[in-house]
Amino acid sequence: MQLFDMFGEPPQFTVHEMMMVLRSGVFLKYAAAVVLLLVAFDTHGYREAGMPLQVNILIWMVCVAAFVFVYAAVLLGWLALAPGGRRIRLLRLVPNATAMAVVTVLVLALASGFADLEFSRRVLLQHLPYNIALSYIFETLMFVFILPQADAALGLDLYRRKRPGCEPPVESRPAPAVPEQPVQPPRGAAEGLNGTAVVVGGQKFALEQLRYVKSEEHYLRVSAGGSELTLRGRLADLLAQMPQDAGLQPHRSWWVARDAVAGLRRGGQSDVLLLADGTEVPVARGRRAHVREVMQAWQAGEG
Fold first, then answer.
1. Alpha-carbon gap, residue 104 to 77, rounded angstroms
2. pTM for this one?
3. Which residues contact 62 (CB under 8 A, 6 or more apart)?
4. What is the dihedral of CA 84, 86, 91, 95, to 10 degrees?
5. Are 38 and 60 in contact (CB under 8 A)?
């Protein structure tokens, strides 16, 4: 799924990645900061209308939590019902306005019970445009400043995926072929990869079926045999089973199979490994020299 508007670079994420961001410390601190700002400025005049401070804090906590819940529910509903399969795009204003409409009704209903406030259709229509504008500002700050921090902390690479039509020139290599001699000698027995199996999250995979494995906190996202699974496990346990010539680890959160690599895009600040299915894998700065060396060796072995 991809959320977009005119502000910032549009992130792309799966449902699992969205839940990881919502549980992250970076996001929870930002949500707490939003509550404190709403309480401090009291732009709706709740305390002026006689609402106790403790109730005011509690209502804004409910407001922020309800907004996040409805926002996520809209995304999940769109993902389930919208055409286009699992890869869909959605304007951020749609879940924002929907969530704020629901939250405005909820908050005004609660506030009218603790302060001298009228709960009517007229008041709702007066508050709704302001609330949508305010929530859109907070949401924009979230996407421009907070989400990149959560992305970096969790290693999700939400902004590094392929966008059709925006690919710069890449350093390509021929279609992968098995060399007569391996570029790097395998650990253990010197036998081919066919028939070799690895265990991920209690499930066995034929090594030749694996395309890439991405670590996401306590889980592994496994691409194998044309499908993608999320399993509980550690990348280090998987790497311990891998022959060295089966692939490479361009980033601490990624392992990529040799046959899945289509090319390498070199950059001044960072390199990106390009896979045959269009996935872009970031190359850690400390691993750039090693990845370039391995790519050259693979190309030389296939030449």
1. 21
2. 0.58
3. 106, 107, 110
4. 120
5. yes
